[in-house]
Amino acid sequence: MSADGAAGDDRPTRVAIACQGGGSHTAFTAGVLRGLFHEWDEERFELVGISGTSGGAFNAVVAWYALVTEGPATAVERLGDLWAELAADDPVDAWASALGVWGSMARDMGVPTPQPSPYTVPASYLGQRRIGRILESFVDFDDVPAHCTHTDPELVVGTVDVEGGVFETFHNEDVTEDAVLASAAIPELFPAVEIDGHGHWDGLFSQNPPVLDLLTVPADRKPEEVWVVQINPQNDAAIPRTPAAIADRRNELSGNLSLNQELRFVRWVNEWVRAGHLPADEFVETDIRRIELDEHFGPSTKLDRRPEFLEGLLERGERAAERFLQAYPASPDGTAPTDDYPRTERRH
Predict the structure, then answer these.
(1) Model confidence over 57-112: pLDDT tens digits?
(2) pTM of the full predicted structure?
(3) Cα–Cα distance between 318 and 18 in angstroms, integer?
(4) When you count CB atoms within 10 A of the terminal residue's CB, does the N or C end of the chain come out lower?
């Protein structure tokens, strides 16, 4: 690839964006997308796909619909409005948010706490329905199929089929309100969402976020770069030893496991393309770049919907996007622009 990421000509670089899930922390992702789309240069970049899981799916679907119906400026506006709607801005909702955070903290520290089934708590159904109404206010799901054309970005939402025990992604016209709600159906908080006779849970258990699905498109739409907005930190400074720290790191690792497996496969495909083992008219090399949440927050704060907390994450995401674009085509940390993901494997 040339220095600006394009394949040696003047056309824009084909880019896909993958949004990792992580509850309230994905307000950071909304900030990243706002920053990217605020400065989006169509002569430099062509968005050919966007995917998301859980809260990342909220961002991906709202951004995609705004982009295909009105454009980047509207996407910037609606992403901010989305998180203003999701925020706990009334006393009852604020109390529920605080209760969820404190309950999560207590469980992480090993304190016995009641854990009722979401199927027996009316608030679980009411909360899920409230999220659905918010999504409906930003996306006309009946209108989605009309914008799923060869020239529009691919849209992918990740879930897991509870009964089948398999990952399941929903593409383009199959992305319904139920699919997005299923992608965020945390088993401890919300009931499974039934789709085609099967219950579906939070996509955090599957592809977080979907990456390979963004590459299964015609050759002229395959992304030359995938920008991963990563919520869970890749590295940790030390071995966690307290119950809370152990729970925290376990949560982070589980969120990154599927992501790193998919990125490793992308690297293999790149090597096969360079070696001539795959036809160049069907496959392209795909650079991976990460935009990471640059501060560590405990897992309990993924349930924190205080307006000031979410606004802080939005602003942090916008600053991260600004740094990313300023550093482009180098990766955000100034290292080589490609293969920016773990490669080391330990074998015993």
Answers:
(1) 999 999 999 999 999 999 999 999 999 999 978 665 655 655 555 455 555 556 56
(2) 0.86
(3) 16
(4) C
What digits encode the pLDDT tens for the residues 300-326? 788 888 999 999 999 999 999 999 999
Number of separate helices (H) and strands (E) present in the chain = 8, 8
Instruction: At 217, list the tokens.
Output: 């498109």
Q: What is the pLDDT of residues 187-230, one digit of tens each?
A: 888 899 999 999 998 866 667 889 999 998 888 899 999 999 99
Nearest residue to 21 via CA among 152, 161, 205, 188: 205
Q: Are 180 and 203 in contact (CB under 8 A)?
A: no
* Helical residues (DSSP H) of 145-242, grouped into ranges: 177-183
Judge contact between 229 and 29, C-beta under 8 A: yes
- With pLDDT > 90 as the criterion, what percentage of the chain qualifies? 49
Select from 157, 164, 170 the least CA-distant residue to 209. 157
Mapping DSSP onto H, E and C, the string for 214-242 reads HHCCCHHHCCCEEEEEECCCCCCCCCCCC
